[in-house]
Amino acid sequence: MSEPRIAIIGAGIGGLACALALQHRGLAVTVFEQADALTEIGAAIALSANGTRELARFGCLPGLEAASCEPSELIWRGWKDQARIAAHPVRKDNAYRTAYGAAYFGIHRADLQKVMRGQLKGDVVRLKHRLTGVKETTQGIRLDFAGQDSVIADIVIGADGIKSKVRDHVAGEGAIRYSGTSAFRGIVPAKDLPNLPDPQAIQFWMGPDAHMLHYAIGPDGGDVNYFAVTEGPNDWPDMSKWVVEATRDDHLSAFEGWDVAITEMVGQSNMFARWGLFTTKPLRNWHKGRAVLIGDGAHAMLPHHGQGANTSIEDAVTLAELISQDGLSDMEALLTRFSRLRRLRTTAIQKSATVTNDVLHLHDDADLEARARRLENFPQEFGWIHGFDVKNGLDIKTAGRLRL
Ligand SMILES: Cc1cc2nc3c(=O)[nH]c(=O)nc-3n(C[C@H](O)[C@H](O)[C@H](O)COP(=O)(O)OP(=O)(O)OC[C@H]3O[C@@H](n4cnc5c(N)ncnc54)[C@H](O)[C@@H]3O)c2cc1C
Predict the structure, then answer these.
(1) CA-based diameter of the chain, in Å?
(2) Which cofactors are reported in the record for this sequence (predicted)?
């Protein structure tokens, strides 16, 4: 029997993870990526145990350890001062690895892609391949690319992110929703933040209608990556653009009156733009014919649990495992099983990330003590996210119970 022709669209986090997972199971794959290089500047990713345990299985751990930084603690503070509201050790006492069986890393997105691509065997990533069309034919599924030859595959895995072209084929257009929130991002050298307590920790500073998240990245934690979220604008000005111009004053005025550590951080940034935060609405189908979605294309979520990339890795490994177990002879059964396994968990995380937005943005007259008690209980409440292991989530009968 000839090898199945497996095509992945997108060499982002989910696409590379899927290629690694398929190769790891002895299956050949080709990845088609629109960009001419995998080097998104200025973006960072926090990888949690549910993602890093899979990457470790592909041999990525030494590369990740060399390129990233493990936070000392997870800390929450209020917006007006530096008092700790709740904290949990991460690297300290090896607490996180002991609890969840794998590491938590802050890493530049381009470094993560470099480490993942470095573990792929052979030259399987085709850059400068922008997918423009998908069509079922009697020979297989035809993939059309701008300015390149078309390709026929037995299965196409859409790992092409929130603006997925494969999703347009599977579920139609119009799946993206603006969340009513937006973010400012920046990367600032830790040495330029003299007022920042615990610069090596991952920290949330919570205030009315806004929060600041930051963590150190790079091998020595020398840079602090921040992600500052505010409510609004109510309507996004241009749905064809994710990022709109903003000024230094826009950044500063959103955090006026906040603790000096925050105004100092925001004031140091040179990335003056506002990112809209978008999600995908729940899709009726994640697959159609020979096409299937993973990652943001299927379930883009707010980033407040840091789970978009991590759940994309989980999707990728689950799909690769099912393909290697069942083959492609009954595509409908295979892809139905895949989406049933993944839908419950990813929808739960999507919803929880939305609730978390509100929890982080409480006003001062809300019950802040109740919030503090919840945050104290964070490992118990959210262990189901970090402790997840794909190999325990491959049975439909138990997949729902893993939420608990
Ligand atoms: C500001 C911000 C911070 C975040 N922080 C975190 C975090 O800390 N932790 C976390 O887990 N997640 C985080 N996320 C989410 C995370 O980045 C995404 O969920 C994750 O990258 C999704 O992986 P993916 O493979 O589905 O898509 P992506 O990683 O976006 O990759 C999609 C790829 O497909 C390519 N592509 C798109 N269209 C085409 C086409 N037509 N033809 C060919 N190629 C195409 C793109 O160029 C891209 O390379 C964050 C997101 C944002 C916006």
Answers:
(1) 68
(2) FAD
